[in-house]
Amino acid sequence: MAFIQLILQGGSVPVEKAGEMKLTLLDLAIKGGWVMIPIILLSFFAAYIFI
Fold first, then answer.
1. In a domain, 45, yes or no
2. Is the pTM of this model over 0.70?
């Protein structure tokens, strides 16, 4: 709850920067391995049904 209040007040959350590592969506999919394939396919299927 305190985290939501901090965001709503416009405050910043202190984060340690260890190398400024940036992850893209493709990087996350590759790190997820084979488990990401059915998750992505099912999410596209769900979007097709509901939209």
1. yes
2. no
